[in-house]
Every structure is written in structure tokens, then in C-alpha cells.
Design goal:
Chain B: It comes from Consotaella salsifontis. The structure holds 2 protein chains of 2 kinds. Chain A is an all-alpha fold. Chain A contains 14 helices and no strands. Chain A has one domain: MetI-like (MetI-like fold, Orthogonal Bundle), CATH 1.10.3720. In chain B, helix 2 crosses helix 3, helix 5 packs across helix 12 and helix 13 packs antiparallel against helix 14. The longest helix of chain B is centred in the N-terminal third of the chain and has 36 residues. The chains are: A mainly alpha, B mainly alpha. At the A-B interface, helix 1, helix 2, helix 5, helix 6 and helix 7 of A face helix 1, helix 3, helix 4, helix 5 and helix 6 of B.
Chain lengths: ~280, ~300
């Protein structure tokens, strides 16, 4: 054990920086959450104090719950996000494996073709996408969102996963081939488990833009029954701009489910990362 | 050589689903848009006008001024991210990856929280916090005796864009942090042990050994930041609206495209001019990505562990 790595000053400095940044990261969220439980006077008089017996109020939540169907929006967002992630990870890993493992004519070209999508804002194709969805009768369905988000997530997934798959040892795969494993088995049994940490990373990066997207729900699926949380919150807040209680409560309701989902999911994520990367 | 190799069907099977979905939903509509920029729409149908729309964008002083303003703002937005977001992300990842750090999971989880929030939430949250009406920011600065520094940043032309850039950094710092963190964890123990035997530890170890090994990840992060920033739209839209106020000082290419495409106030939406701006964004991003792929990525050495 070297002295430098266990020096207490260094460790205190590291914790100092991390705590400072943690405060910066969490402070705005906490301010919104605590103020959503206060009455209007308290919100303005002392925004940084916790709700006390006098200032406690649920009036904002009452307004919000009377108005919007947040449970349904949440369910829609969840379905769209989960299905899209599964498709992106499965199809993306398959394509990344083909590109990083085999030499075939057109390999580089195919890689560039798929990488092209990383830089294309899929919004640029919105008009044509809308025409396509109208033509196939998918407007105002969750399927249209899932298709768009799968297409949107694939390029980055292929790009990152093939970077990682290049690092999987060739000896291992060749040993599998000598043992008579088919290429499919080598992919599913040998390679996929080894790149699992990077899959978790890709899943998070894929999830965020999908969950947070406002544009496509607004254009492809604005119907009441297919609204996502982001769209629902945006419309709601737009209506209640001057009602601070309602706005704070709506923000809190939009934050809390994601936060809970994230806390559950992050354990999987951390386990995924540590399973492969930590020795 | 004994005849032709058999066709390797598994390659096609592995590639087919991704390529099909990607082509149908992303590539074909994109070309549809590029095509649209060469046409002019009228109630009678559309007519081919060649590069006239581009001539309008650069030739008409009104259009050109808006375009260059948006491009300059967008560039500054990107510079803020490169100077603040990525170094901070690397620093946090380096601290987190220290093998004996306690509460690691807590820090990692907490710092990533802003990244999971939607632009709608982030835009409104910061708008409320920076609002002079509410007074969270002034009373917070007061705690440090810095109340005099407060000004309504989002409402001032000279600060608004920088303020929003920093809000965006606040939101996204978790992404470079996680990518670098994963890269740092994948550095094998043997290399670190060898460095320690040679007496290279702590900060020197980071600069001399780890940083070199994670350069490919830093390259990926830089290009992702570039692409993300030049597609940005949502944060500006939720905080400042489609007009990207005050006085267009926060207008970036995304908001400019939106206004042109869907119209605002008295101006009617113009899909063809919108497609023209979208095409320009496409070319700008294409140049950046080519630069990365052909100039930067090739020079990075890759290590197989």
C-alpha cells in the first residue's frame, strides 16, 4: 500500500470536491420539492426553509391532481422507454458485433452509414416521419414513438458497443469456435455477458433522451391517451404559469417518479458496471 | 484457394434489424428533408427551385443576420460545454474511480440526478430559481455576502446565453462523468501496479498514465458534446420560449429552425426554409464529425487489454 493513495488530506480534499458538487447537483431539485409543500406566502417569504406546521400546504398538489392524468402519462412514458431500450440494446449489440467481429465487403462503409445517425438530429426528418406515420396509420400510438426512438438510439448504441466489443479478447471467441459454438452462441453466451457494463451505460444514455423528449410526443402522439409525462407536464405548467403552488407541485410530480425509477435502476446500473469493470 | 467462401448469413442476420429500422425511420426521412430544401411550396404544389432557398438564407440580410447570430451563439454554447462540462466530468470521474473512496455509490447516484430530468423540468426549475421575483438566488448569495452580484441573468442579453449554457452543463455533467468513470475502471490493475512500483502515484499517475489510456473516451465525449450542442433546442425553448429572448440573444440553430419551420407570432411557418436551415445544421455537424473521424480518432492509439 503506497502512502500517497491513503493520505488523509487527499481523501478529505476528494470528499470536499464531491460533496460540493453533490450539493450543486441536488440543490435546485430539493428547493423545488420542499417549496411544493408550502403555502404561497411561505414560498416567497423564505424559499430556503423547510415547510413548518404553519407554512405546510398541499394546495398545489390538489390543483394538479384535479387537472391532469399523471398516472396514465407515466405509464405511457414507461412503456415507450422500456420497449425502446430493449430494442436498441438487442439490435444495437447485434449490429455492433457484426461490425467489430467480421471482415466483410462493405464493413467500413456500413459502420460509417450507421454512425451517420449519431450526428443527425432525427428532428430534421420530422416532416417525412410524420408523413410516414400518417400513411401507416400509426399516429397517436405508442408504437410510432417506439419506432422513432429505436431508430434514434441505434446509431449511438452501435458506435459505443463496437468500441467496447473491439476490446473483447479474440482468443476467447476463437476458443469458443474451436469448441464448436455457433456464431449466434458466441455472441449471446460469450460476448454479450462481457460487454454488459457498457450495455448498462448505453441503456442510461438511451433512456435519458427518450424519457425527456418533448418533440415527438407533441407531433406524433399528442392524444390524451398517449401523452407522455414530459408532454403532460409541459402542457400543464404552460396553463398554470402564475400559480406558483401548482407549478411547483407539477414539477415535483414530474421529478419524483423519475427519481424513484432512477434510484431503483441505478442499483442495477452500478451492479452492471461493477460486474465487469471492477476486479 | 478452394472455390468461393460460403455466404456468411449470420452477418446479415446480425445487421438486418438495426439497418432496416434505422434506414426506414431515420435515413429516408432525412433525405426527404434535404430534398425539401430544394423546393418551394405553394398552394398549387411544389416547384423545384434549386439552391434559391440557400441564396435567401445567406443573401437576404434579415435571414443572414439571424442565421449568423444563431450560429455564433451555438458556438459559444459549445465552448462553454467543452471548457466546463467535460473537465468537471473528468475530474469527478477521476475522484470517483479512486479504489478506496467511501460513499462512492451515493456521489455517483446524486451527481447523475440532474441528467435524468427532462429539459422541461430543468428549464422551469432554473427559471424559478434565477427569477428575481422568487428570490432563491439572491437569498442564497446573501448567505455568502455576495448579494450585490445578483442580477436577473436570464433576462439580460449579455448573460442569458452563458447562464443557460451553465444550466445545460449542470444537467449533463453526469454523462462525461459516467463514460470516463467506466473507462477508468476498465484500466487493468497490472498497469496501475506497475506505475506504483515505479513510484508514479496520485495526481502524477492520473496525468501520466490514466489520462493517456482514456483519451479515446475523451474523444468520444467531445464529439458527442459537439453533436448534442448543435442539435440543442429544448432547454432554450422551455426557459426562453421560441423567441429565444431577450432580443434573440439565446437563439441557437435549433430554436431558429423551430421558429422558421412552425412559424411564430406573425410569421407563417415555412417548411422549405426550415428544411434549408436543417440542411445547414446537417452540413455543420457533418464537417465536425468528419474532422473527428479522420483527423482525431485515427491518431488515438487503442490499447487492447
Amino acid at each position: 500500500m503506497s502512502k500517497a493513495t491513503s493520505s488523509p488530506t487527499r481523501s478529505i480534499a476528494a470528499h470536499g470536491v464531491l460533496i460540493l458538487y453533490t450539493v450543486i447537483a441536488l440543490f435546485p431539485v430539493i428547493v423545488i420539492l420542499i417549496n411544493s409543500f408550502k403555502n404561497r406566502q411561505a414560498i416567497f417569504r423564505s424559499p430556503l426553509s423547510l415547510p413548518g406546521p404553519e407554512s405546510f400546504s398541499l394546495i398545489g398538489y390538489q390543483t394538479v391532481l384535479k387537472q391532469g392524468d399523471f398516472l396514465l402519462y407515466f405509464e405511457n412514458s414507461l412503456i415507450v422507454t422500456v420497449v425502446s431500450i430493449v430494442l436498441v440494446l438487442l439490435f444495437g449489440a447485434m449490429a455492433a458485433f457484426a461490425l467489430s467481429e467480421y471482415r466483410f465487403r462493405g464493413n467500413t462503409l456500413m459502420g460509417l452509414y450507421l454512425a451517420l445517425g449519431i450526428m443527425i438530429p432525427i428532428r430534421l426528418g420530422t416532416v417525412a416521419i410524420l408523413q410516414l406515420m400518417v400513411a401507416s396509420g400509426l399516429v397517436n400510438t405508442l408504437t410510432s414513438l417506439i419506432l422513432v426512438y429505436t431508430a434514434q438510439g441505434l446509431p449511438l448504441a452501435v458506435f459505443i458497443l463496437s468500441e467496447f466489443m473491439k476490446q473483447v479478447s479474440d482468443d476467447l471467441k476463437n476458443a469458443g469456435r474451436i469448441d464448436g459454438l455457433s456464431e449466434y452462441r458466441i455472441f449471446f453466451r460469450l460476448v454479450l455477458p462481457l460487454v454488459r457494463p457498457s450495455m448498462a451505460t448505453v441503456a442510461v444514455f438511451t433512456m435519458i433522451p427518450i424519457w425527456n423528449d418533448l418533440w415527438f410526443p407533441l407531433i406524433l402522439a399528442p392524444a390524451e391517451s398517449t401523452k407522455t409525462v414530459t408532454l403532460g407536464a409541459q402542457m400543464f405548467i404552460g396553463q398554470f404559469v402564475t400559480n406558483w403552488n401548482a407549478v411547483l407541485a407539477a414539477l415535483s410530480l414530474a421529478i419524483l417518479p423519475v427519481l424513484i425509477l432512477y434510484l431503483i435502476f441505478s442499483r442495477q446500473l452500478i451492479r452492471g458496471i461493477t460486474a465487469g469493470a471492477v476486479k | 484457394m478452394a472455390g468461393k467462401k460460403p455466404i456468411r448469413w449470420h452477418i446479415a442476420v446480425f445487421l438486418a434489424p438495426a439497418v432496416l429500422i434505422y434506414t426506414a425511420i431515420m435515413i429516408l426521412p432525412l433525405f426527404g428533408t434535404l430534398e425539401l430544401s430544394l423546393f418551394h411550396s405553394s398552394p398549387d404544389g411544389r416547384t423545384f427551385v434549386g439552391l434559391d432557398n440557400f441564396r435567401t438564407l445567406f443573401g437576404d440580410p434579415r435571414w443572414a443576420a439571424s442565421f449568423w447570430n444563431a450560429l455564433a451563439n451555438n458556438t459559444w454554447f459549445f465552448i462553454i460545454h467543452m471548457l466546463v462540462q467535460n473537465p468537471v466530468g473528468i475530474l469527478l470521474a477521476a475522484l470517483l474511480s479512486h479504489p478506496k473512496l467511501r460513499f462512492r455509490a451515493f456521489y455517483r447516484t446524486a451527481i447523475f440526478v440532474p441528467t435524468i430530468l427532462s429539459f422541461v423540468i430543468v428549464g422551469f426549475v432554473w427559471k424559478l430559481i434565477l427569477s428575481p421575483l422568487w428570490g432563491v438566488a439572491p437569498s442564497l448569495l446573501d448567505l455568502f455576502g455576495l448579494k450585490a452580484l445578483f442580477s436577473p441573468w436570464l433576462g439580460k442579453e449579455e448573460y442569458a446565453l452563458t447562464a443557460l449554457g451553465l444550466v445545460s452543463v449542470w444537467q449533463f455533467v453526469g454523462i462525461p462523468m459516467m463514460l470516463i468513470y467506466a473507462a477508468l475502471l476498465s484500466i487493468p490493475d497490472e498497469i496501475i501496479e506497475a506505475a506504483e512500483i515505479d513510484g508514479i502515484t496520485g495526481v502524477a499517475q492520473f496525468w501520466k498514465i490514466k489520462l493517456r489510456l482514456i483519451l479515446p473516451s475523451i474523444g468520444i465525449i467531445s464529439i458527442l458534446t459537439f453533436v448534442g450542442n448543435f442539435n440543442a433546442f429544448d432547454l432554450i425553448y422551455s426557459a426562453q420560449g421560441a423567441l429565444a429572448g431577450p432580443n434573440f440573444s439565446t437563439d441557437i440553430l435549433g430554436t431558429f429552425l423551430y421558429r422558421t419551420f412552425f412559424g411564430f407570432q406573425l410569421q407563417i411557418g415555412d417548411p422549405n426554409m426550415g428544411a434549408t436551415i436543417a440542411s445547414m445544421m446537417f452540413f455543420i455537424i457533418l464537417v465536425g464529425v468528419c474532422l473527428y473521424l479522420f483527423a482525431i480518432q485515427r491518431r488515438l492509439r487503442r490499447y487492447q487489454f
